[in-house]
Specification:
Shape: globular
Number of strands: 6
Order of helices and strands: HEEHEEEE
Strand order of the largest sheet: 3-4-5-6
Largest sheet: 4 strands, antiparallel
Distance between the termini: 44 Å
Structural class: alpha+beta
Radius of gyration: 18 Å
Number of domains: 2
């Protein structure tokens, strides 16, 4: 069906269709596609799509970067994609912005939108003794 108008619901539907269409490619080639959040700008509506390729290591590039930097921020490699609750919403911890000393924690919401938070925002997820994250479920805000 050709679109005559294009609104937010159309974008949601197209995003969902993209995920379905890309799934066989992921399975066939051992890759993953991350379709980011939808954005509306003056230039037009768009998605960001990231292709993660595993070159025989069994770990994608994002996870390797997390594992490399995690100890600088008091985390462990197994904390990759850990769920945290910030401002009443749930996010997954996936990386660090090493060039931003204050806004250095990279998280992703359930729609794929990536955001930066301050390290103090997730301090409650670390133990006081070791600096590593607490075990167990995500605390409710």
């Amino acid at each position: 069906m050709k679109l005559k108008e294009f609104d937010y619901n159309d974008m949601k539907q197209i995003r969902a269709q993209l995920e379905v269409v890309l799934k066989p490619l992921e399975d066939e080639h051992g890759i993953t596609f991350d379709i980011g959040s939808m954005a509306r700008t003056r230039a037009g509506d768009h998605f960001h799509c990231t292709l993660n390729v595993d070159i025989g290591t069994g770990v994608d590039k994002e996870k390797r970067a997390f594992e490399k930097s995690c100890s600088m921020y008091g985390f462990r490699p197994e904390d990759y994609n850990m769920e945290v609750r910030l401002g009443g919403k749930e996010y997954k911890l996936f990386g660090f912005n090493n060039n931003a000393p204050k806004w250095c924690i990279e998280v992703r919401d359930s729609h794929g939108k990536e955001m930066l938070f301050q390290e103090k925002s997730i301090a409650k997820y670390k133990t006081k003794e070791t600096g590593v994250l607490k075990e167990g479920p995500v605390p409710k805000a």
